[in-house]
Amino acid sequence: MFRSLPLILLLALAIPTAGAERIKDLAMIAGVRSNQLIGYGLVVGLNGSGDQTTQTPFTVRSLKSMLSNMGVTIPPEINLQLKNVAAVSIHADLPPFIKPGQTIDITVSSIGNAKSLNGGSLLMTPLKGADGAVYAIAQGNVVVGGISVGAAGSSVTVNVPSAGRIPNGATVERQVADSFGGNGPIILNLHQADFTTAERVVEAINKVFGGDVAQAVDASSIEVRGPTARNQRVSLIAVLENIEVAPGQGAAKVIINARTGTVVIGQGVQVGPAAVSHGNITVTITSDPIVSQPGPFSGGQTAVVPNANISVNQEKKPMFLFNPGVALNDIVQAVNKVGASPTDLIAILEALKAAGALKAELIVI
Description:
Elements: H1 5-14, E1 21-22, H2 23-26, E2 27-29, E3 35-44, H3 57-69, E4 85-94, E5 103-110, E6 121-128, E7 134-141, E8 143-144, E9 147-151, E10 154-158, E11 163-172, E12 186-190, H4 195-209, E13 214-216, E14 221-224, H5 230-240, E15 244-245, E16 253-257, E17 262-265, E18 270-271, E19 274-276, E20 281-287, E21 290-292, E22 303-305, E23 308-314, E24 320-322, H6 328-337, H7 342-354, E25 358-359, E26 361-364
Parallel strand pairs: 16-26
Antiparallel strand pairs: 1-15, 2-12, 3-4, 3-6, 4-5, 5-11, 6-7, 7-11, 8-11, 9-10, 12-14, 13-14, 16-17, 18-25, 19-24, 20-23, 21-22
């Protein structure tokens, strides 16, 4: 069955489906993932913007340990006063299938009180995985996207100068073991779990290959029977990821960010019969004190009597009616007609949900 994979691939690419997405964009192959690496090192060559050693003693200890490993012994009683060295953490992502000798980008971040890493160089630092093994060695000049300038007690900082990147700054020393080749099936994990999409992916794969090559495990995973040889598995996946599928429509949702006033109304949101009236009431209180003047020869004293004027102004906005099955476009147009702000829109949507007229899940973040 898998001997004709190149021909099947050409046929799959030659028949595009309108309004569909590739499986490559809908799912990922189980086991094909990146791994996180982390390390601790020193950045040197800073122009007086490094760690203050009195507040970050670990920087001095790290430097003494490094010099000791290189044959330079510093007596314990000597207290180094450094301004051009900074202790940093290094982290990176190890891509799948990367081989020893290849390079990866790394991010360098100060963990002390260094003001800037601009102009510094990272000394050789091992990067370890979650298992404690060394997978890469990092070293190079730090590229900083921020700047910090100070003079006469004033300072200006743009972006974050205490962190930077080193393109191709780490060399891979060990390959992560994978189970790509083997007797097990190929598992496709959907980015968004959906029973309809999973079923359509299974139907599309079986239509291309014939038989029951694929079967759904659950709403998120599809299991595909494949060959054991790595070369044939690569060819099979090349076919799978280019098969086009029309994904199922997601659940109707309305996302509200109460902090920023952002409202996102998803596809398929509808409103049942409802009448909405939303207006703003403005209460204005102004102080208007009155001077009380006593009569002539009364012996009284002039006094200031407090007085306040209160006015209430209610903004008149028309009431608008939602008919059964109103769609997203009608909701937006109706709210725009009354000139509602994002805060007003949030209040309207919450009221519609409380009244049972909003046919969607309301999520407040």
